[in-house]
Amino acid sequence: MANEIELTLSERGAEFIARFEGFRAEPYLCPAGVRSVGYGHVIRDGEDYGTVTKEEALTLLLADATRESVPVRKALTRQPEQHEADALISLAFNCGGSAIAKSTLVKAFNAGQLVTAGNEFLKWNKAGGKVSNGLTKRRKAEKQLFLTGAYE
């Protein structure tokens, strides 16, 4: 039987991601040294961006979030609430859906261990192998969103 789990980003979830990513109209190197543009869109081979508008950047964010959520959705065995989905997608957008799909966080969520799953967000706070204050702040916000539904 096919996985009937839905995992879609809400408008509030997109705003949450955009707030943490920040907007950059021109290409830049993110803290992990990856060429990016807009709201954290990783520039892939064959893509060429001079500048992007906020609207174009939001379109890229939504496409990236959709792509990165697929492996996570396939790994879920229970339906998340919308705030839980938004937190999971934010993490997948930032760290890669394939990695999150195999994580202890997803295993704990599937087992109904929500506090354990929430605490697992905090482990994904490194860029280039080093703890990042910005990522630590984001992971705390994702944990709060996941556990309480607070989009702050």
Mean pLDDT: 95
Uncertain residue ranges: none
Number of helices: 7
Strand content: 5-15%
Overall radius of gyration: 15 Å
Approximately how much helix is present in the residues? 40-55%
Biggest β-sheet strands, sense, barrel: 3 strands, antiparallel
Shape assignment: globular
Q: How many strand units?
A: 5
Question: Which structural category fits the helices and strands?
Answer: mainly alpha
Secondary-structure element order, N to C:
HEEEHHHHHEEH
End-to-end span in angstroms? 37 Å
- Adjacency order of strands in the biggest sheet: 1-2-3
Features of this protein?
mainly alpha; 3-stranded antiparallel sheet; 54% helix; 11% strand
Commentary on this structure:
The chain has helices at 11-21, 54-75, 82-95, 97-101, 104-110, 114-120, 133-148, and strands spanning 24-29, 35-38, 41-42, 126-127, 130-131. It has 152 residues and is mainly alpha-helical. A hairpin with a 2-residue loop joins strand 2 (35-38) and strand 3 (41-42).
